[in-house]
Amino acid sequence: MTSESYGMSSQELIQRLMNPDRAKGLDTFLILTFSNINIHSTVADIGCGPGYFTVPLAKYAVTGKVFALDIDDEMLDACRTHVAELRMGNVEVLKCSEFEFPLENGSIDGAFMAFVIQQSPDKARLLRAVRELLVPKGWCTILEWYKKDTESGGPPAERRIDPPDLQQMAEEAGFRHVSWRDLNGDQYMTVLRNV
To answer: What residue numbers bound the domain in which 82 lies?
Structure first.
């Protein structure tokens, strides 16, 4: 997750992403309830940023493992600090590149991507790279912005992707679309499965 894509410094973006008010529109418990995560899951939080979803994922996968991945060093440092403060021993924070991840193909049960797809210059390639990390029948939960201008901020509308377009792109990348749901009128959630 890069601060440049939001037109603010890394520290400003970190504060915004970790703001407790964010939970009013993004109920992490509800989101994870509708994901396919379980207590034994090995999960990659791709584009983890400062760890807003990393910690809830780690609490849910209590006997599993969460790999928190990001391309931005300041985000990774913030995530490490957040994870360490809460003593989350089942989280490993790792740097990745845009389309390459420090994990073996077929090594994770699930992938979680919060507001990452819209940032990618090659959305289809990103989806294919993530699918390769998953075990057969592995799941991928994606949170994204509807393709419209919103008062709550967020990325430019031209970068956003609507649910039907994301579904088509995901299916072309080898996923099966499982479900989608509105989160708050501005953002939605899609669940995919590796076929």
So the answer is: 4-194
